[in-house]
Amino acid sequence: MFEAGQATLGKTDAASVALAVTMMDRRLIGNGCWNFMAATFGVWGVTAQGNNQSGATMFHSPEPSAGPTCCLDEPGSIVMPHLDTCDLQIAFDEFGAREGHPVLLLHGWPDDASTWKAVSSNLQRQNLRLIAPCLRGFGGTVFRNDKALRTANGAVLAMDAIALMDGLGIERFSVVGHDWGSNIAEALAIGWPGRVDRMALLSSLPRMGGLKMPPFRQAQRYWYHWFMATKRGADAIKKDPHGFARIQWENWSPDGWFDEETFATVSKSFDNPDWVAITLHSYRVRWGEAEPDPQSVWLEDRIRETRSLSLPTVYFQGMEDGVNPPELSKDLHKKFSGSFDRIVLQYVGHFPQREDPEAVARELAI
Question: What is the pTM of this model?
Answer without folding.
Answer: 0.83
